[in-house]
Write a structure and sequence with these properties.
This protein has helices at residues 11-16, 19-42, 47-57, 64-71. The chain is an all-alpha fold.
Length: 72
């Protein structure tokens, strides 16, 4: 995984070389993103998605009418 160059909100932080501040910010952002994604993963899958997945998983090709029913 490549690392993109970072731009600091405060140019003094980069000049001083205080990477611990940047690491702390990264950790905080990571924690917030994990919390957000955990909430999304806990949400139930909508019934229309489950119906579409079921139709896609069947051995018979779905007709256009069957797909339209799921879209409705």
């Amino acid at each position: 995984m490549s690392t993109l160059p970072r731009r600091s909100l405060n140019p003094d932080v980069r000049e001083i070389g205080d990477r611990s501040v940047l690491r702390s910010i990264d950790q905080h952002i990571g924690q917030e993103l994990r919390a957000l994604y955990d909430e999304v993963l806990a949400e139930p899958v909508p019934d229309r998605f489950l119906a579409l997945i079921e139709k896609l998983g069947s051995s018979e090709p779905a007709s256009a009418e069957a797909v339209e029913e799921v879209d409705a």
